[in-house]
Amino acid sequence: MHHSPVNDLLTSAPQAVGNSPDVELGCPMGATQIQLAAHSPLAGGRNMVAMPLASDNREVLLPLDIPEDNLSLTAGILPAQWIKKLFDRDQIGGKPLAPGQIQPASLDLRLGKTAYKIHASFLPGTNSSVQKRVEQLTSYELDLSTPQVLTRGAVYLVEIEEQLNLSSSLSAIANPKSSTGRLDVFTRVIADRSDAFDVIPAGYKGKLWAEVSPRTMRSRLSAKD
Question: 110 — alpha (psi -120 to 50), left (phi > 0) or beta?
Fold first, then answer.
């Protein structure tokens, strides 16, 4: 039983038949993804993709046998093997992994079954959760266990299946996949107590949400099992 990821979320070609929605958003793989990074105090806050060996010009992947407490000594974007390890350690929670969900250096995010039509895009701010702001800004709730029509130009907030329980040396950044741009559907990720979109700070513990807004065509969205 797998919920559809937010990253390859947009898969079918546009339609224009009668009053049916113009594009299908229910999916095998979603509309946004995250990269997880270890941080080094020696890197000046930058995320280094690989570690150069001192003896030559080769680059090596982050070894799996590095204790998590020592990740801050070897900063970089985490590869697929480490993302899987974070699942095994329950630092990334949710349903069991779907085939193909972990990419070489990123994780596809899956939609949950609850979405909200909201009055406008928002950030919760550093002292509030997304859920608290949702209660103030929601027009109505949608159940994505069945396909739902999204109105062109409207803004929706969708629960993401994955939850994070990151250590203080791990952060993440989200970005939409190219399929959303091709279909002109705007997406970005919101975390609790955040003042920036698509940024999940080091040590974050909590849920994630996807903001979804069709720009050109009405859309049908579902979180298929």
Answer: beta
Question: Cβ-count burial of 178 within 10 angstroms (0-12 exposed, 13-18 middle, 19+ buried)?
Answer: exposed
200 to 60, 188, 195, 207, 215: CA distances (angstroms): 26, 12, 10, 10, 25
**What would the pLDDT profile of 93-142 be if each residue is shown by its tens digit?**
988 988 889 999 899 998 889 999 999 999 999 999 999 998 888 889 99
Give all domains of the chain, ordered by start, each with its CATH number: 23-39+73-221 (2.70.40.10)
> How many other C-beta atoms lie within 10 A of the C-beta of residue 65?
4
Task: Spell 188-206 as b/e; 16+ CB within 10 A means b.
Answer: bbbbbebeeebebeeebeb
Q: Look at the pTM and tell me if it is higher than 0.85.
A: no
Angle at 194 between CA 134 and CA 219, to 5 degrees: 50
